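Late entry, evening session. Most of the bench is empty. Finally got around to the prediction I had been postponing all week. Sequence below, unchanged from the version circulated by S.P.
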Amino acid sequence: MVKIFRVHGDNIIECERIVDYLFAGIDVIVISREFVSLSCICVNVVFGFNSVEHRWKIEMFPGFNKANRRRWKGDIFDSLRDNGGFLDETPDALVTQINNDKETILFAVEFCSALQAGNQAWQRSGRAYSVGRSGCPYIYIVDFVKYELDSTTRERKALRFPNAAVPYSFISFSKYTANFVVQSYVRAEEFQPSYDSKLANFDESIFAEKDLAEYMLLKMLNMNTSEIEMRILDKNSKMVEWLSTGNNKKRSFDNNDWKSIYETKATSITHSLDENRFKFSKSIAAKSITGKNREFTELVKLNSVGYASVDLPFGLIPADKRQDFAIGLSKLYPVDDELFKKIAKPESTLVICMVKGFKPRGDDNRPDRGILPLIAMLSSENTEVVTFIYGPIIKSNYKLLVESPTELARRNGFWRVFMSLSDYFVVDAPLLDKSKNSLEQIEQVIDNQETKKSYIAQKPQGDFSREPISTTSNSYHEDDVDTVIHAIFKHIIDKGCFEGMCNPPGGDWSGLSVILNNTEYRWLSLPRVSPDCKRPDHLIELFDVQNKPILLVVESKDRKQDLESDIGLQLKGYLDFLFSFRA
């Protein structure tokens, strides 16, 4: 009997990455590909596993219903939302199975080829939190390791790593949800221990390519995955220990701290309170300081305990310090008696999170989207949180925040993160009013507990089955153009060409390759922009046409009117710019 599976991905490349992981763990006997519609490629595979022959059909659905498009008849994410995944965050891929006229989600996958450092390390935590709390298994696959490149010379700078609290938050979240949510590390192209002494002692057994293949296969075979889940989580823990080895204990948890938390019933909060080795003190750039930002920072520092690391934008107010904190807060901002009592109650630890939130024009400061989900994963979504916002807020959004918070959360996914995971707001920020040239400063403390409760009250229903989505899309977009181009040069033409780059919508521009004299030359961490140039969507190298290879550079669009008149020169200029950097 043929089993039918589906991969719903951000784009065709991420759909095929799932298939590549699977094929790495099975004994393929026969494989073929076909288009089941103008939008979907299907992989038919016969393979052996445990001395049993299996026949699978894997259909790939590139391009989710995003940016208000209704690309597909039905929304695969409805199952996650109905099970409590309330944030406006979606993973890179969902693997489903068709059975008895139902399509059931099996697990979700996120790919990260970006530099995992600073606030970028938690930018996608909202996806892990939202999918994970629904009860759907979630794997965050990280390419390790990445270098930051000099913008002018494109030479490697020093290695940068994430704060160990970020990968540990996945372990913590798995513990208290009893769901498999994990960061899993795979070997990146830049991983060269011989090149960088910082990697000399890295334990390469942490890499989990084979484990991922095994997990996906067992999950799709409906077999027990508990053993492989624990193995991957243990590797996640080893990475936490490696990242924190040698840390200054006066500034951050070290490997012994994280190991103790992992192996005992302690939590990151109780361990922080017991150790009490450093204070929380958020640094705000001088150009961003307005209102009473500085005074609030000093108040927090006076009453706080550092949480995991001084480099994180959140800390703890111990239960016995909450009243002192509330008194100081009421001296800075208007706080009514009822709100004062709530903040001052000495019943539990209070988390203080300080975020800019918004850029100078009021646009979302995207990495801040993940900080509250990180706190919820590291501690618990039931932990009380005060969110201090000091970045400029658009007047219309502020009006909704005060008068109709649920409507603001419905309209704006960024605000939804704040409002679903914050108990209180301290807003000390400029108010952007497009009708006026001057800026008004908002200084207000807001009780958001009821709004938060309405979100976290949503619990998993345990049903990820829906009517199968049709393989025929409602309309065609750039995703389809890229899928066809990719299929032609990757799978249909099997000789005489080489796909050096495929960058569909949502791609990661992680690398571009050309072959010269049977040697592959590859440029990594591609710049998004360069002077008067545009990064290609596809690069195809054609052989045996002339006496030297021909590079076919492609810009894909779904509408002719969207194509720039001089796009060819821009694409060629990008390659000239990139090829000028060659070791």
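Two things to note before I forget:
The mean pLDDT is 91.
The two ends are 53 Å apart (CA to CA).
Will write this up properly tomorrow.
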